[in-house]
Amino acid sequence: MDSSFPDFLNLEERYTPIEKGVRKAARAFVQKEIEPIIADAFLKGEFPTSIIPKVASLGFLGPTLPKKYGGMDLGDIAYGLMLQELEAGDSGIRSFVSVQGALCMYPIFRYGSEEQRMRWLPQMAKGELIGCFGLTEPDAGSDPGGMSTTAKPTEKGWEISGRKMWITNGTLADLAVVWAKHSETDEVLGFVLEKGMEGFSAPEMEGKLSLRASVTSELVMDKVQVPDANRLPTAQGLGAPLSCLTQARFGIAWGTLGLAIDCYREALQYTKEREQFGRPIAGFQLTQAKLVQLLCDITGAQGMLYHMGKAKEAGTLTHQQVSMAKRVCCELGIRAAREARSMLGGSGILADFHCQRHSMNMESVITYEGTHEVHTLILGREITGLNAFS
Ligand SMILES: Cc1cc2nc3c(=O)[nH]c(=O)nc-3n(C[C@H](O)[C@H](O)[C@H](O)COP(=O)(O)OP(=O)(O)OC[C@H]3O[C@@H](n4cnc5c(N)ncnc54)[C@H](O)[C@@H]3O)c2cc1C
After folding, report:
1. DSSP code, position 203
2. What local confidence, expressed as pLDDT, does residue 25 receive?
3. Quick check: 1 pLDDT over 80?
4. Nearest Cα residue to atom 45 of ligand 1
5. How much is the average pLDDT of 201-223?
6. Residue 119 above 90 pLDDT?
7. Residue 312: band (very low, low, confident or very high) from pLDDT cuts 50, 70, 90
8. Of 91, 125, 159, at which residue does a domain stop?
9. Strand (E) positions, 195-308?
10. 368 lines ligand 1 (CB under 6 A)
11. At which of 66, 99, 125 does a domain end?
12. DSSP annotation of 180
């Protein structure tokens, strides 16, 4: 499929050679390594672990971190373009990379000691250690402050008990950043749990109809003894996990934009080739209206993310702006996938094409990292000054 997209905002002349280079590398990776295998992986419900050394060798794990910790010191627009290409491949692949980088390496980098950074980050960047992020619980999803996982101080460290669910990469992970409440003060604290710790297990959740090429797990913690050396020392309060979510949501917005572009491209190519009533279906006004609506909405989202990327690089991006980006781009992604599916007719439901897989994946992506409704409430609070959460 033609990998280009109309550049109505002339963004190409603004992207730096590094940004274009990262995008090119990610696109080539997806074409060579993901597209040939993803339909099968999705149908089987398997995350293709064989890609881990490849994404690591491209520097895609934690790329915005300093080189000292295995990162590439990459700017935020280059990072966004990388995720855009990966999610055009599949949301499961982008989720793996986002969780490793933004939800496991980032908290260790931001809230960990220098010793902890050096202990884990370089190996995580090489894909030798896989991480996950355990915040959501069976009874605490949109309201993570309602978590019941506890960390009880002991003579040697901490005793952690509780259950997390919906944890991406969980069963694969060597390390889990787990958020728990101090048993006496209720303050939210962050810990790094390691595979093999007694009382810690991560069974995979079965039966997903979405994000099938991704591992989703429970984390079960039964009086796990965790040394104080595994507590992230500066993570104090719910703001710490929420700051990690802001990091990841920025990337999700770029990723879902890539998914929408992939759907647009697939629909354009198909409708130009498919003939009904003696002419290509792209020649019908209703089809053109669908394509043009997607073109306009994708172009608007590209402009928004470019500016937000610049703001992030300047250190001025707010979490409310990130909520808007996540909300807009996820809504666009799910709509693009459904519109593309309609333009492909019956063929659209086949795994040979991308749009139905993207549509199913979007049901997870629009839910995790703050549902569409949660981001609506964040923005509603911002413009009215009134809290509609509870
Ligand atoms: C595939 C997948 C992977 C995930 N990966 C991770 C991960 O790696 N780590 C992790 O910690 N979590 C992960 N999650 C969990 C995800 O973040 C939660 O599913 C999400 O936060 C929603 O929580 P919930 O499913 O409990 O739904 P609920 O919070 O129970 O929400 C159910 C519905 O009620 C709505 N709702 C809730 N509160 C309000 C309100 N105040 N006003 C209006 N509507 C409201 C929601 O918008 C939603 O529509 C993952 C989820 C999925 C599906």
Report:
1. P
2. 98
3. no
4. 373
5. 98
6. yes
7. very high
8. 125
9. 200-201, 216-227, 231-236, 275-276, 279-280
10. yes
11. 125
12. E
| Closest ligand 1 atom, residue 211 Cα | 1
**Nearest Cα to Cα of residue 107 among 252, 243, 249:** 243
Residues 148-181: tens digit of each pLDDT: 999 999 999 999 999 999 999 999 999 999 999 9
CA angle 69/75/77 to nearest 5° reads 140
**Domain presence at residue 63:** yes
Over residues 218-233, the pLDDT tens digits come to: 999 999 999 999 999 9
Q: Measuring CA to CA, which residue among 88, 78, 76, 74 is closest to residue 5?
A: 88
Given the residues 184, 339, 369, 382, select the one marked as catalytic. 369
Whichever domain contains 80, its CATH number is 1.10.540.10
Confidence of residue 3 (pLDDT cuts 50, 70, 90): confident
Q: Tens digits of per-residue pLDDT, 361-376?
A: 999 999 999 999 999 9
Q: Is residue 350 part of a domain?
A: yes
Which atom of ligand 1 is the closest one to the Cα of 134? 11
Count the Cβ atoms, other than its own, within 10 Å of residue 189: 22
Which letter, b or e, does each residue of 64-99 get, where b requires 16 or more Cβ atoms within 10 Å of its Cβ? Answer: bbeeebbbbebbbbbbbbbbbbbbbbbbbbbbbbbb
117 falls within a domain: yes
Proportion of the chain above pLDDT 90, given as a percent: 98
Q: Which of 368, 369, 375, 390 to mutate to test the pocket of ligand 1 (most atoms within 8 A of CB)?
A: 368
Q: Is 142 in the pocket of ligand 1 (CB under 6 A)?
A: yes
Is residue 369 annotated as a catalytic residue, yes or no?
yes
Domain that holds residue 325: 240-384
What CATH number is attached to the domain comprising 212? 2.40.110.10
pTM: 0.98
Strands of the chain (E only): list them: 131-134, 150-153, 157-168, 175-182, 188-194, 200-201, 216-227, 231-236, 275-276, 279-280
Find the 97 Cα to ligand 1 centroid distance in Å: 20
